[in-house]
Amino acid sequence: MPMRDLSAGPRVLLRRLRELMAEPLEPQERLDRIVRQIASNMVAEVCSVYVLRSDGVLELYATEGLNKEAVHTSQLKMGQGLVGTIAASAQPLNLSDAQAHPAFRYLPETGEEIYHSFLGVPILRAGRTLGVLVVQNKASRNYREDEVEALETTAMVIAEMIATGELKKITRPGLELDLTRAITIDADAYNEGIGLGHVVLHEPRIVVTNLLNEDAEKEVTRLAEALGSLRISIDDMLSRREVSQEGEHREVLETYRMFAHDQGWVRRMEEAIHNGLTAEAAVEKVQSDTKARMMRLTDSYLRERMHDFDDLANRLLRQLTGFSGRAFDEGFPVDAIILARAMGAAELLDYPRASLRGLVLEDGAVTSHVVIVARAMGIPVVGQAAGVVALAENGDPIIIDGDDGQIHLRPVLDLQKAYEEKVRLRARRQEQFRALRDVEPVTKDGKRISLQMNAGLLVDLPQLAESGADGIGLFRTELQFMIASTMPKLEEQEGFYRNVLKQAAGRPVTFRTLDIGGDKVVSYFRAQEEENPALGWRAIRLSLDRPGLLRTQLRALLRASAGAELKMMLPMVTEVSEIHAVRELMQKEVQHLSKFGHSLPRKLQFGAMLEVPALMWQLDELMAEVDFVSVGSNDLFQFTMAADRGNARVSDRFDNLGKPFLRILRDIARAGERNKTVVTLCGEMAGKPLSAMALLGVGFRSVSMSPTSIGPVKAMLLGLDIDKLSAELNAALDDIRSPEPIRALLLRFAEANNIPI
Ligand code: PEP
Ligand code: MG
């Protein structure tokens, strides 16, 4: 087979390199011997290694053939000269007449003018360029394809040497290599707070340490077997009907399948094996090459496909290495900051909560459920952090700023100190908020506001006393279902609610019945794939169609609140008739319990969430039907503006403090007054002091938010004269000609009246 003949050279070279890597040599000596070995094996007169420093400069670290004095002296910037071009493009350059290339740059200290042919390849790791490896010859020639491939394979060994930190010892003082470069990424602030800690990649890359093979045929067979299992597993996922329920879109799976059968991909990996790599190193090499090239694409569709390809290659690596869990050499960090492309709420709940210091998402949106859960956990969240996962390694130091939306990867010491100071300042501010805990939430003009908190898990409960909230305005019962692996039984649900009520110690708890469907995925609950899940079979719609499910929950709630008050509400109500239907089921449950001698709740408060705009034209009927209404502003806003709350491209496009939405909220508050029905709001906007101020201005007297927001919102309202604000705000909302955005008016008002927002 010609392939094997051609590969004899690289295989011998790789074997030699492996021996060199194992010898107890000083790093400079090792590198010098590596370049000598490559030069002799490739019959080249020159072989040089350039390493990328954190200041974007490529420095000559070793050479065979060029002037030795140039080592650690010769430098090229990223994009400059042939070497800089290779680094910037992450593509090899194969030239028979290097000096004729427009990017050629003459470095007199190297003495390279006598060499005509030039072959340079990027030194890549996980798609990142760490340096450039070059061979040169005097005679003008074109290097063969297999020689390019061989040099790329060799570059992997050098990448490993750089990645293990071995070259640090020969890096001049004051300089750093790019791998340890401090990076700041501007992203979006999703939940306030500062997180200092260490990176935990949600989908960890598998670090391949066994690079060089003993028997190429054996590795080709291993690769073929792993690919076979991978293809079967993809077909299997595709054939399951609940594909969309697993968070893996059919479209993505189709792309996986296409890549998994791509002959070009398979051929490149086989070539790498024939050149001496193990099957896993071959997967990594081709993944890294492809990624480096695709990272430079500007087309967002293709970049997205790159993610898919990357995921697929990771799956293949997992097949080959049998890796399944999260490996941490020194245990799971006590100050973990999770980095993920995207994540479901249940996955976040799988992490040890006490060790979580923050969450970074490449995608996501501020009102997506994983963010809501993170907020409930009180951890800072930064979203829309493009590319962060590829730049980070497990265990890297990281700071995330949930106030400004910044991420500092491998921060320099000064920055770290500045942030430690900021954390101390925040702690002091928290201290001040805590001091407000027992202060009554009464505005400057004497209006008592009900401040409640949102919860969904038992671990949230201690926050009730700590925050000084009046009660729980929204208890998201679906979280118990989302973290369970099977449907919680009646007894489990009852025990859970009982526990919640016990820990609430007499403060009211508003249980919301199951709000699953849409993006709230419950793995064991099978549903059909839907085109528009947010508008689909979810929440109360699903509960009414599965009365067994709803009745079990109602029974559990009734039993858990025996002798006490039961406060419950329904999510996503669209028509008042849905409330009647639930009341009927409730009646049946009450009868059933009475018949069997169970004691019943002392009082029942029945409410509805206002999340669907259709209810705006049934306000009076609705309020005649329920004891209270709670506005779910996250959903109401998404449906009002036709802007998906989970899609960052559109979720922030419109202002929730703009006229349309505030007018809607005012209408709801007015309907509440008219009907003497308690109206509250439990979406994310209640937790921001500025929007909470607007809510009070349009007539709300009760709001529910994440517990960490209670202090800041209370501080705001203590300084607020609601009547004064309402006068200005209502005038602006009624004035169809006023050009000033309402948000600007609110900011101006807060500043003029010294209100902390
Ligand atoms: C809302 O929609 O505003 C709400 C509080 O419910 P959830 O965020 O759980 O959908
Ligand atoms: Mg909702």
UniProtKB/TrEMBL annotation:
Gene Ontology CC entries for this record: cytoplasm
Q: Identify the SMART domains for this entry.
A: GAF (SM00065)
Instruction: List, for all copies, the residue spans of the domain called GAF.
Output: 26-172
Q: Where are the transmembrane segments?
A: none
EC class: transferase
Query: Where does it reside?
Result: Cytoplasm
Keywords of this entry: Cytoplasm, Kinase, Magnesium, Metal-binding, Phosphotransferase system, Sugar transport, Transferase, Transport
The keyword Cell inner membrane is assigned to this record: no
Instruction: Please indicate if the UniProt record lists Transport as a keyword.
Output: yes
Q: State which Enzyme Commission number(s) the record gives.
A: 2.7.3.9
Family matches, as Pfam families: GAF, PEP-utilisers_N, PEP-utilizers, PEP-utilizers_C
Q: What is its main location?
A: cytoplasm
- GO MF terms held by the record: kinase activity; metal ion binding; phosphoenolpyruvate-protein phosphotransferase activity
Cofactors, names only: Mg(2+)
> Which reaction equation describes what this protein catalyses?
L-histidyl-[protein] + phosphoenolpyruvate = N(pros)-phospho-L-histidyl-[protein] + pyruvate
Biological process (GO) annotations? phosphoenolpyruvate-dependent sugar phosphotransferase system
What's the family?
Belongs to the PEP-utilizing enzyme family.
Protein name per UniProt: phosphoenolpyruvate--protein phosphotransferase
The organism is Neorhizobium galegae bv. orientalis str. HAMBI 540
Tell me the organism's taxonomic lineage: Bacteria, Pseudomonadati, Pseudomonadota, Alphaproteobacteria, Hyphomicrobiales
